[in-house]
Amino acid sequence: MPITINGSPAALPDDPRVSLLDFLRDRLHMTGTKKGCDQGACGACTVLVEGERILSCLALAVQYDGRQVVTVEGLADGNGLHPLQQAFIDHDGFQCGYCTPGQLCSAIGMAAEANRGVPSHVSADLTAEVVLTRAELQERMSGNLCRCGAYNGIIEAIRQGLLAETAA
Ligand code: FES
Ligand code: FES
To answer: Strand 3-5 and strand 46-49: pairing?
Structure first.
């Protein structure tokens, strides 16, 4: 089984040392996924594997043989933006935009984690239903750095985008 990227199968690299990030960017020329630190510290390279957010710079492409990967290029529905993408525009959730693909994928994975009831470091009751308060969102998105400091817009965008998604 080949790896699947945004619904399309792709042949894995012969070299097992190629990271998923380099595979996406250098081999498949899908440059939406960004390389920031290349060592797991910034979140710019976040992609989704069957709905779960991962750091593609810390993953080897061959690890994902047979798995379904979604990158920022796969979020939109045809010409229509994903509700979260539109929310980032509406709330000025970016300046340079370099961190934005990772923020988008991370937020979608984060919402799925919250829906599954996964607690965070700031969750007071580990058994209670997760309510995505501002503090919860800040904590859960803390792995995605923004050098432009667009954090207020990012949090508002995620709130609007998640609500829009839930209502859809
Ligand atoms: S490039 Fe992967 S975490 Fe920074
Ligand atoms: S918008 Fe520039 S790094 Fe986040």
So the answer is: unpaired
Gyration radius (Cα) of the chain, Å: 16
Ligand 1 close to Cβ of residue 28 (< 6 A): no
- What torsion, rounded to 10 degrees, do the Cα atoms 47, 50, 132, 85 define? 50
| Predicted confidence (pLDDT) per residue in 88-110, tens digit | 999 999 999 999 999 999 999 99
Q: Is the whole-model pTM more than 0.85?
A: yes
Q: Which of 19, 26, 57, 98 to mutate to test the pocket of ligand 1 (most atoms within 8 A of CB)?
A: 57
CB 20 within 8 A of CB 61: yes
**Partners of 52 in the β-ladder:** 49
